Amino acid sequence: MELKLENNLRHQLLPVEGVAAVVEASIQEAPKASHQNPLLKNQLSGEALQVVRQRANLLDKATKLHVTPYMLTDKIKALPYHRLLDIKMETGTGKTYVYTRTMFELHKRCGFNKFIIAVPTLPIKAGTASFLTEPEVKRHFQNVCDYNAEIELCLLEPQKQSKKGRQNMPSAVGRFFFGNHHVKNKIYVLLLNTQLLTNGKLLTRDDYDQMLGEFHLPVDAIANTKPVLIIDEPHRVERSGKSYAALIENFHPQLVLRYGATFPDLSVGKGKNKHTVKDYQELIYDLNAADSFNQGLIKGVAKEHLELPGGKKAEKKVKLLSVVKGDNAHLRLTSADHASKTFTLHVGENLGMLDNDLDGVTVEAISKNGISLSNGQVKLTGEEFFPDQYGVSYQEGMIELALMRHFETERENFCREGLPIKTLALFFIDNIESFRGPEGKNDGWLRKKFVDILTARVKKELARQNTSEYAAYLQATLDNIDASCAGYFSKDNNDSDENIAKEVKTILHGKKQLLSFTTEEGKPNVLRFLFSKWTLKEGWDNPNVFTICKLRSSGSEISKLQEVGRGLRLPVDSAGNRISDSAFMLNYIVDFTEKDFANKLVAEINGDLGTDQRSPLTITESDIILVAEKRQMDVNKFFIELMTEGYVDFARNIVPEKLDDLQNKYPEFKDIIRGVDTKRIRDRNQTPKDKVHIRKARFEELRDLWAQLNRKYILYFDKEIDLKIEAALPALIQDKHVFALQTVESSRKILEFENNMAVAKEASHAELTLVNHHYAYNEFLKRAARNTNIPVHLLHHAICEAVKNGYSLTDEMFNEGSLTRLAVAVDDWKCEQLVGLVRYKQANYKVKETKLTNADGTVKDEVVQAYIGNKFIAGNPPQSYLYDAYAYDSGLELQNIQTEIEEVVVYGKIPSHSICIPTVASSNYSPDFMYVVKKTDGTKELHVVIETKAYDKESNIAPDEGTKISCAEEFFKEMTANGYTVHFRKQINSTGVKTIINELVMQDS
């Protein structure tokens, strides 16, 4: 098998071209000596940086990415001067390939041939060395990319010291220094891990047995080559740390290139002005996580945590930490909020001291490996179990879940059209002995349990209808089940066991072997389940990891992106071809203490984008204008094209399943739509329900209030209103320029979409063509009357008056645009003039079926979730809440649902469009919450309706929303006047619902 590299991926070519363009424009003179690189100007070309940033769409991102000026902190200021370029690339997008190709490009275009690659850890160093020396990688850059050169890797390793006399000069340093630029087809790369500089004197001692030219110290010789320094994983080599300082002070690089998915944070300023920024400097490329997920450059993530059987929510778990044979056992109880407590138990003692659910279960015996319980269960050191159902091993349940997801994915990958994809799973554990066994014989209890569970699962998979090829692969797995799993732990490096050494070699260095379905002997290769103790992180990767199961917690402070990083790369098939035309997902299995993992991952990704964030599934008017201008299209016609193709709706919401198609057909949107697409990061435990159950006992407490709220009311005005409208209309038509042809010109360019029509307003001295339909005059009047609720005869009279006053009209002006402008103008006038003059009258109409009740008055079992909230989280709301789930539209609404108030008998979200309060703005209004509250004397007569507005202050409430609230206030006054008192209140972020209720209770007492 040969891994095939791709030559023309845009996201990889852009950073290569960017660095090369800046360097090429910044060269000052040719090399002064044969072992040196060309010399760069004191400052990198500002013009070239501007062009590169513009090409990478970075100019408008500088502020929100917090790109910092050069030399911010005192530590950084003290370092020798060096030029710095930053290239941000998300894990799994080909960072090593990009900086390798950059070296070839700088050699080809500028003559550079001395590069230092500094990495923070040995695994990264091993992975980089493996990539640079792979035969297929060499062939790719020579034959496919047409670079007439090859890399000579100078791998710097620790030296064995001589017992006496001078030390041997590291051969890697000699080969690097003496590499001559007259040898046109050689690029010399010194690869080192930073510890070689910070721990010991490998490159700074002066007692070596030879000189390098005129230099006694290796660092001086290396610095004299005027090298380019490449730093991999910059978050591990911070500019304020000793590793970075050692690199700069010893090597004096002309140019530093930092490549990473994560960059360090930097504290700047003092006192009140002290704040944290992301340590970017000359950032010339930003392939962030959001773009990587949205563009399908990496796998998506499907997080899932284990719950108790029967759907019961897991709240706590017990882990056996250690035992002293025959004496005592140490156990830890952990709750969902990560709080934990440790207990010591002796033989005969009751586990009820840990948790009430374990009361009656005693410790019968303590062996050298675990404890025996009075219920017949045996728990081994390192094992976890639920107190709620103590017979269930937590690890066992997580393994079952992980294997279920693995085989779902494997079956699909194996039986796909084209060549099959080998599917791997990675398990992180925290106890080596549980896998290797106490004697290191690969016979630990966890490994044995895993093999037992795997055997049962493979038999179940064999019972399915499978292709003959996949059935044969499953049977081969069953026949050689022990060979299907292997582990690597740092402790293994000192292990002499031959089988363990083979496992370690395969996992660390046998990437192609892991990806193959057959062994070198031609037998089925069933190895695909890998175990580690979080040792496999940066520096190790395999593109075909599709499931990661965390049987151990990594801690809450670790980057969530780093955690999933081992499984994000796009897979390759059995011939080594990278597959990028499918929406692959990584199954990520965690325990219940990390149930919010998906939310934290989304927050981390979007937090990296800065403050200018919005949903990836919406586009603005200015977005449409921008793309239309780039395509030299009429704005309205372009918008109609987007709707006709089914990409967006009238409100400019992108149809989720159409996002990829939209960005493929209109690539301009790829750089506009920000934020990670949440369908690329899913939480399987929080799949929104279609229906939410109504708690019938709770509904009976507010049945009377619900019936009153659903009575129909008619909106009417005082008689003088007709005269007021008639008098205002002619001036309104003239002042608002209601009637016009198909072009509009004004001061700002904003395209608004109202009432399912596109309206261009306040254009910046540019004409925006409206898509118009012309109407006969009588048809126009009828449509206008329907849209404004103004009688035809008043509209006709107003138009005639406007013409008499010199307003010019032609037949073509009775069009769709004029109709829309008229409706907007009338609504605006009503909101300004009529709010205090509205009246409500109860209609003689009895409501039959409602959103919560059937036609016969009985309460429904459930309500459509979308009626009470588009957002959904799992959990059990307080018992006084009307529904059994959290469905909401804003954080303020969720806060209200979660707030328990002693005086409240029952409360609930009012289903949308159920209470239809007519308003002056030609639309109906429905508030958010209803409450039944006990008065101070214990009676249930206080009824409250609350409108939530998730704003920080009332002045932020939009005028049209304010109009609706004002109408609602009049509505509930009328209801109270009719004998049924309802208190209506509006709520913003700064006001808690408990405060509102308490004030009403005190007021009513």
What does this structure look like?
The chain is of the alpha/beta class and 1005 residues long. It folds into 6 domains: 15-287, P-loop containing nucleotide triphosphate hydrolases (Rossmann fold, 3-Layer(aba) Sandwich), CATH 3.40.50.300; 315-387, SH3 type barrels (Roll); 398-607, Rossmann fold; 621-671, no CATH class; 693-712 and 843-1004, no CATH class; 715-842, no CATH class. Helix content is 33%, strand content 19%. The chain has a 7-stranded parallel β-sheet with strand order 5-6-4-7-8-3-11, sandwiched between helices. A hairpin with a 2-residue loop joins strand 29 and strand 30 (757-761). Helix 1 (10-24) runs antiparallel to helix 2. The chain is globular. Mean pLDDT is 82; it is low at 66-71, 611-615 and 742-772. Residues 880-986 form the Type III restriction enzyme C-terminal endonuclease domain. One of its GO terms (molecular function) is endonuclease activity.
